[in-house]
Design brief:
By secondary structure, the protein is of the alpha+beta class. The chain has 2 domains: 149 residues, Sandwich (Jelly Rolls), CATH 2.60.120; 71 residues, no CATH class. The chain is 14% helix and 31% strand. The chain contains 4 helices and 15 strands. It has a 6-stranded antiparallel β-sheet with strand order 3-4-5-8-7-6. A 6-stranded antiparallel β-sheet has the order 10-13-14-15-12-11, with no helix packed on it. A hairpin with a 2-residue loop joins strand 11 and strand 12. It is elongated and about 65 Å long.
């Protein structure tokens, strides 16, 4: 009797599984070369040999929000010179590179539109633009910064290369930059869909007390503070903002970007104290 195709397929899977688990060789895992984040409005693709950092290389304590970080080496670490990825730059070897895209909630002023040629438009750092921390830039690293505006928001592209910069690497950086898509960030400030997470900058300096979302004012329930009108110490690393979701018509939940902290909100009522200034 002939073996059935299904039985052959199962046998092949078993043989491949056993073969991959034998000896000292780890199973081969395909490296993803694309990324999409609908909340941040960012999508990107990159060549084989590049890697997306799984933690913020800039440290996340400067008010800048890191949207994407790519490197030619694996397992980069966050540094102490936010917003400069000093630890990742220090770890780079000859011919390595990194590219970081970040934004902030500040005004765009007279920033130019997004440049077509990143390496040509980016200015070298440090280059006398305060505030600059020369100790945050390892010797032998060509670090550059391009500030621009897109969809009414301020962005920065930080690119660093440890010499030598080959023409091949330059083309790869430009390829990533050309294929990077930035869409308008939706905040749901006026109208929010139920169950959809939206980009949100939560006021935390004086504790988590209130916010605005879905065309309404909201009150934290419960209020989160250190008891003296300040944010708790464990919330100090959430300056980069997070997302807010309308979980019910009269309930919303905020989560920071790292997923470590959350706050629940209810609509403000006439019995609630008016929101005061945070000094």
């Amino acid at each position: 009797m002939r073996p059935r195709p299904r039985a052959i397929a199962v046998l092949l899977v078993l043989l491949l599984t056993l073969g991959g688990c034998s000896g000292d060789h780890a199973p081969v895992v395909a490296t993803p070369t694309s990324y999409l984040n609908e909340v941040d409005g960012v999508s990107a693709t990159w060549p084989v040999g590049w890697h997306r950092a799984l933690e913020e290389l800039s440290g996340g304590k400067s008010g800048h929000i890191e949207l994407l970080a790519l490197t030619t080496f694996e397992d980069p670490k966050a540094g102490q010179c936010s917003p400069h990825p000093d630890a990742a730059m220090t770890a780079m070897k000859g011919g390595d590179a990194l590219l970081v895209l970040r934004t902030d909630a500040g005004p765009i002023h007279d920033q130019p539109p997004r440049p077509k040629d990143l390496m040509a438009a980016a200015r070298r750092r440090p280059a006398g633009q305060p505030p600059v921390q020369p100790s945050c830039f390892p010797p032998g690293v060509d670090a550059r910064l391009a500030s621009f505006q897109e969809h009414g928001r301020h962005y920065e592209a930080f690119v660093a290369v440890r010499a030598p910069l080959s023409e091949h690497l330059r083309r790869e950086i430009q390829q990533i930059w050309s294929q990077l898509k930035i869409r308008p960030i939706e905040t749901g400030l006026e109208n929010a869909d139920l169950g959809r997470p939206y980009w949100h900058n939560l006021q935390t300096h004086c504790g988590i007390k209130f916010t605005k979302f879905d065309g309404r004012e909201w009150v934290a329930d419960p209020e989160i503070s250190d008891g003296q009108g300040n944010m708790p110490r464990e919330w100090a690393d959430t300056i980069g903002g997070g997302t807010i979701t309308l979980t019910e018509q009269d309930a919303a939940v905020y989560e920071d970007r790292g997923g470590k902290h959350a706050a629940t909100f209810r609509p403000r009522t006439a019995q609630d104290e008016p929101a005061g200034p945070c000094l």
